[in-house]
Design a protein that fits this description.
The protein is an alpha+beta fold. The protein has 24 helices and seven strands. A hairpin with a 2-residue loop joins β6 and β7.
């Protein structure tokens, strides 16, 4: 198979595949350079904007690198309830950029630390209840937030970090960034996988070729930087006084934490899909494991008195598309490199001396590709009026956040209303909840998961069809889908006699000229396979002698869509059946 064809179908190495060590290290280094520069730059921007000391900047730089490195290693590991089992690039928690400046300015590192720890408790509850939030964290909502992250992060980086010295020619100042950006655009337009793998180092190299002769690469910073910074580090501690500033800012942090959680849940889902060659159903146990690591990283950030980092970045998708490698070993190497460089100030100086114009150009390419990934997530599959309305209105509202904040100037709420991700995310959630109102009023049936319960399921669906005046053909189709969905769950079940009887909850509600049937089962990992994947992989050349395959064929034929979501302790089958 040609390299182009290979690129079309996804990464060369999936998370669970063994990648040659040299390729894994090379891929990790390519991600390490721009990710570390970006992380250190964002920390510097937040600390400087809040007027904090150089001593705190040194502490924050060291701790955010260490915490992010640990987060990437934990994400890559295959641990139960912990980690996503693949490459996840961690960096600054983008929704917290503005409110971190606000907290540091109001009460210093101690206040920021106590607010991060307190708001992290919300995330613990949300992660545990992820299955209950499945109708909120839809693919459309996730895609909208990804797009808003892309369009809000770059302006923050450029306006805060790319500052032209007074009296210097604008054209001369922007020349290194222009060289890097043109190089990146050229490689992308060539659409050659072998070239795309080296796009990030190529951009940095092209920028430096122009920057060094013009004197933009500050060698003095590297010369005067100490080799180690450990002796100068001091823990700022936690502010446990819980004064007026704490209670004023806590609602803001809780609200931003909700937005950040929603962003991370969507990011992990997008990365899961992009890290696999074949289109497969998302294993939400991996998402929950990733969220648990994110929670630990955020809590660690708070206890260390540093900025909220170790947040999974959906830019992982862009890095994977560039390198063609999504193996978990890349995440481990990347984490180790990030931890290793944390105490070495001189090595960090080599990276941070890269001109801000070049860094800005690199992030324009990265976040530009990220915006496209978000759009793909929103508009994958048929685009109905509901999806179009949610995506369009929430995106425009998010982009208008800066204008809206002017109406609340001088109040604490202006920091929320002015946050692109918060505004767009809240609008997307509110509109999604409105569209899902019928599902909350759906009729439910609670029974045991067993073959003897099939008549009860059949009667439940027949009554629904009669109540909503379905034709006999549609009624039979609905009953058949319900029966085969239950049978498929029974056939995928681990037949261990020690297993206790599980409960099944069936719910159904009308949706236009169709019905949404949902079957929830307390799984306890007894359901071994994924019905949605079996439908996707089912080939027409297989025979019908396998009863399990027959059930899946019937589901594929009579249901217009089937989704199987696996969480820790819960399996949920959703089927849409046309009237």
């Amino acid at each position: 198979m040609s390299s182009d064809a290979q690129a079309q179908r996804g990464p060369r190495y999936q998370p669970d595949e063994k990648c040659p060590p040299l390729l894994a290290i090379t891929s990790a280094l390519q991600i390490f350079v721009p990710n570390t520069i970006g992380l250190v730059m964002l920390v510097g921007l937040v600390v400087r904007a809040s007027g904090q000391s150089d001593a705190y900047l040194a502490w924050a730089t060291f701790t955010v690198l260490a915490a992010s490195g640990v987060g990437m290693i934990l994400q890559a590991l295959q641990l139960r309830y912990l980690g996503s089992g693949g490459l996840i690039v961690c960096n600054f928690n983008v929704p917290f950029l503005a409110v971190s400046v606000l907290a540091l300015d109001a009460g210093g590192p101690g206040l920021l630390a106590s607010l991060i720890v307190a708001s992290t408790l919300l995330q613990t509850v949300l992660t545990f209840r992820l299955a209950s939030l499945r109708r909120i964290f839809t693919q459309t909502v996730s895609g909208v937030i990804v797009m808003l992250v892309a369009v809000s992060a770059v302006p923050f980086i450029i306006t805060g970090g790319v500052i032209k010295p007074e009296g210097m020619s604008t054209a001369l100042f922007l020349a290194p960034g222009a060289a890097a950006l043109i190089t990146g655009a050229f490689i992308l337009l060539k659409d050659a996988p072998a070239w795309r793998m080296w796009i990030l180092p190529g951009m940095v190299a092209a920028g430096l070729l122009v920057a060094i002769p013009l004197g933009f690469y500050d060698v003095d910073v590297i010369i005067h930087a100490p080799w180690l910074s450990l002796s100068h580090l001091r823990w700022p501690g936690l502010d446990l006084s819980f004064g007026a500033d704490f209670w004023t800012l806590l609602p803001v942090f809780v609200f931003v934490k909700l937005t950040a959680f929603m962003k991370v849940a969507g990011d992990l889902s997008v990365v899961y899909r992009a890290s696999r060659r074949d289109l497969s159903a998302i294993d939400f146990r991996k998402v929950q494991g990733g969220l648990n690591v994110y929670g630990i990283g955020t809590l660690l950030s708070g206890l260390l008195g540093t900025l909220p980092v170790a947040a999974p970045w959906v830019t992982t998708v862009v890095y994977v598309s560039f390198t063609g490698v999504a193996a978990s070993s890349v995440g481990i190497y990347l984490g180790l490199f990030t931890i290793a460089i944390a105490p070495f100030s001189k090595l960090l100086a080599v990276l941070t001396a890269v001109p801000s114009q070049v860094v800005g150009a690199v992030y324009i390419v990265i976040f530009g590709a990220l915006f496209v990934e978000g759009a793909k997530s929103v508009f994958s599959g048929p685009v109905d009026q509901k999806k179009a309305a949610v995506a369009g209105i929430s995106t425009v509202m998010g982009l208008s956040a800066g204008v809206l904040s002017a109406f609340f100037e001088g109040t604490i709420s202006s920091h929320l209303v002015g946050n692109t991700i918060v505004v767009g995310g809240v609008v997307a959630i509110a509109m999604t909840l409105f569209t899902e109102l019928p599902s909350f009023r759906a009729r439910k049936l609670r029974i045991d998961l067993s073959r003897s319960s099939l008549p009860a399921v059949d009667d439940f669906l027949a009554q629904f069809a009669d109540r909503h005046s379905w034709t006999e053909e549609g009624k039979n189709r609905l009953r058949l889908v319900g029966e085969e969905a239950v049978l498929s769950l029974l056939e995928e079940e681990n037949q261990d006699p020690a297993n206790q009887q599980r409960r099944l909850i069936a719910s159904i509600h009308p949706d236009g000229a169709a019905a949404e049937l949902e079957i929830t089962v307390a799984a306890d990992d007894a359901i071994q396979g994924n019905i949605e994947d079996r439908i996707a992989y089912l080939g027409d050349d297989h025979g019908l002698e396998d009863e399990r395959q027959l059930s899946v064929r019937i589901l594929r034929h009579y249901a217009s869509s089937v989704h199987h979501r696996k969480y820790y302790g819960i399996d949920i089958i959703s089927c849409r059946v046309d009237k």
